[in-house]
Amino acid sequence: MIVLGERIKELRRRDGRTQEALASELGVTAQAVSRWEKGICCPDMELIPSIANFFCVSIDELFGYDNERTKKIDALYEKITSRNALNNGKDVCIDECIALAREALIEFPGNDKLTAALASVLYNAGFVRRGEYHVDSPDGFEVCDVRRHRAYPEWQEAVKLYEKVLPALNSGELRHRAVGELAQLYQFIGEHEKAALLADSAPALNGSKQFLRINAFDGKEAVAARVDALIDTVYSAADLIAAIVRGDRSLPPATAAGLLDDAVAMFGLVFKNGDAGKMRGTIASIYLLKSYYLWLADDHDGAFESLDRALELAIAFDDEPVAEAYVSPLLRHAKPLECMFGRELTPELPEIWPFWDVPEAGRVKNEMTADPRWAAWERKTRRSL
User: Fold this and answer.
1) How high is the pLDDT of residue 38?
2) In this structure, are 174 and 272 located in the same domain?
3) N or C, fewer C-beta in 10 Å, the chain?
4) Which of 262, 275, 290, 367 is closest to 321 using CA atoms?
5) Domain endpoint, select from 11, 37, 63
């Protein structure tokens, strides 16, 4: 019972309570409490609930079990999510991740954190097992293939799990991920009103973490926080431009390619010296997409120039030294790329072209690979193999 005595002392000091106060509440002497804390003897079993109530903890927490339980749940969650991150665009170990999450919930039934972990794995499983599909709407815009997506058992279960657990999740990274993935699932299956309600429950842009962190600092630190927020904003704006280009099928291909140039130019607003650091991976992906639209516009020379530019950026991305002070605000944007490839970006370029889902990718790639310049470009991407 030394552990219980130490726990009583720990909780008492946490709350700033005296031995006399606890003794008075329980109807025992202060000497009795002192003996418990020294491990000389232990409280009578009928006093245990009262002691737990005095400190506003459960009986498990009083005995220190809850701390061990929390540690194990956190370890399981970390294992599930870290393994799931390997399945970024490819099925590396998705079955293993699902099994890990289900086994964890058997051990800790109904746990919110592990339920969210299983939902996230199932969300990812829909992509790597079955894919994301789009069709053209009658007015010429890209829309999700709702009929196909609704048939995915992984996404059906993920939606139910997220809807069940979301009300219990507090603000923070776990809830942020749950809201983001559930909103995306709603889009995929055509539940747009539910997705809009989720969006309305989120803070405005100036209430986001990046912008609020500006107010957390002053002087030099505040400037650094503003730079960080600016980089995030530019990254998101460039991604939005790419999404608009892909979504509006009425855009002439040459116009689409020009808009992607605008997306790239936005990074120049932040990186005045042209050194985009780890952001080069993102810019490389934009050039891959641009080559697709240039080919559709019958600018075949321009398409291969765009591929060469993507290659240059990918090589620089792979060669970028990891300096802690430099990477801090930028590396998180590169993580999706690094997780996806698990090694270098450069050798993956031919496989991931054009990076995003576009309607005529198969036909265009067949035509481009028939051009001798594709084989020459592909050989250059294998520099490190």
Assistant:
1) 87
2) no
3) C
4) 275
5) 63
Q: Are the C-beta atoms of residues 300 and 319 closer than 8 Å to each other?
A: no
Q: Are residues 300 and 352 in the same domain?
A: yes
Q: Domain tally for the chain?
A: 3
pTM above 0.90, yes or no: no
Determine how many CB atoms are found less than 10 A away from the CB of residue 27. Answer: 9
Strand blocks (E) in the chain: 134-136, 142-144
Angle, CA of 39, 41 and 43, to the nearest 5°? 110
270, pLDDT greater than 90: no
For residues 345 and 244, membership in a common domain is answered with yes
- Is it the case that residue 83 has pLDDT exceeding 90? yes
Residue range 174-190, pLDDT digits in tens: 998 999 999 999 999 99
Give the Cα-Cα-Cα angle 291, 293, 298 (nearest 5 degrees).
Answer: 95
pLDDT tens per residue across span 316-330: 888 876 433 333 333
Structural domain boundaries, residue 247: 209-381
The CATH number linked to 45 is 1.10.260.40
Q: Which residues contact 319 (CB under 8 A, 6 or more apart)?
A: none
For residue 342, the model assigns a pLDDT of 44
Radius of gyration of the chain (CA): 27
Rounded Cα–Cα distance for residues 221 and 229 (Å): 12
pLDDT for the residue numbered 340: 43
Among 145, 173, 202, give the residue marking a domain's end.
202
Q: Quote the distance between the C-alpha of residue 152 and its chain's center.
A: 21
Statement to judge: residues 287 and 195 lie in one domain: no
> What is the CATH number for 185?
1.25.40.10
Three-class SS of residue 379?
A: helix
Q: Given a cut of 60, is residue 331 above it in pLDDT?
A: no
Question: Which DSSP letter does residue 130 get?
Answer: H
When pLDDT is averaged across residues 187-215 and rounded to a whole number, the result is: 88
Mean pLDDT of all residues in the chain? 87
- CA diameter of the chain: 92
